């Protein structure tokens, strides 16, 4: 990553995400086709809903012919973390126009959020519309077209998991987590480390009681609260 | 190509709630400033979310019991983490991760 906030560096820095998206979106298209969705439905879901892991949830529920209301509620629970991520990014774009803010929010994902958090450590904690929009659009288009292509490959590949692509985005989060911890100077490394341990333990214990979809949000909120207490306690 | 009204409604409904979750904070925070305590709180969102997303792929949920370990993903995480420490380069980390899981899947 560099300190430049231009189109070229955005394209370059989004490449690892795009690589991950191709793998996961292909797997999504293949899975969705196997569950009876048409290529058009797959393409539209990726363009309109555009929600990564939640799209897998939708496909599994559509295959069961679940009610529309309950599917939408599940999607909201899975994606409620977007509210938190948008709240974190939005202040860095408040100098841009309202439309640019709405557009940047429209295409924000876990991955472009994580990238922009990392970018802040290189730019003196600054972000602009051009950089985020380029990253968002690049990721969005690749996700949409790759899922359609996955749908076309359809039944040719039965077990997309075995190629290891499903791990691309996990690897990205591992990398971004590490880079975030060593480069974010706003929170002490020791505090970050303890918060990460807290989240690991909370996820492990929580899986016993709460379905994974809601658990991620609950644990994130607990982790942030714990972090604030710790930050003030160690001052 | 088929497009059932059921699937279309699911896509539009899910799209709407997702879009609102993404956009409302941008609209509100364009006009209001967050208090310091909330800013502090949100400062922990990146590491918490990234750790939680990682753990989702490491544990396999069995409600009512403690989760079991997703062994292939856990094994693949080790070289991935090492490559992060050594390279600090996201593209290298992703490539090492995918190759690691590919190899683990061949062996296990």
UniProtKB/TrEMBL annotation, chain A:
Residue ranges the record marks as coiled coil: none
Any one GO cellular component localisation term in the record: plasma membrane
Protein localization: Cell membrane
UniProtKB keywords: Cell membrane, Membrane, Transmembrane, Transmembrane helix, Transport
Keyword match Transmembrane helix: yes
Signal peptide: none
Record GO biological process: L-valine transmembrane transport
Membrane topology type: Multi-pass membrane protein
Pfam family, one: AzlC
Transmembrane portions of the chain: 20-44, 137-157, 163-182, 189-207, 213-230
Family (UniProt): Belongs to the AzlC family.
PANTHER family in UniProt: INNER MEMBRANE PROTEIN YGAZ (PTHR34979:SF1)
Protein name, per record: Azaleucine resistance protein AzlC
Organism, as annotated: Secundilactobacillus mixtipabuli
UniProtKB/TrEMBL annotation, chain B:
Superkingdom: Bacteria
Keyword Transmembrane helix among UniProt keywords: yes
TM segment ranges: 6-29, 41-60, 80-107
Pfam families: AzlD
Annotated protein name in UniProt: Branched-chain amino acid ABC transporter
Lineage: Bacteria, Bacillati, Bacillota, Bacilli, Lactobacillales
Keyword terms: Membrane, Transmembrane, Transmembrane helix
Species assigned in the record: Secundilactobacillus mixtipabuli
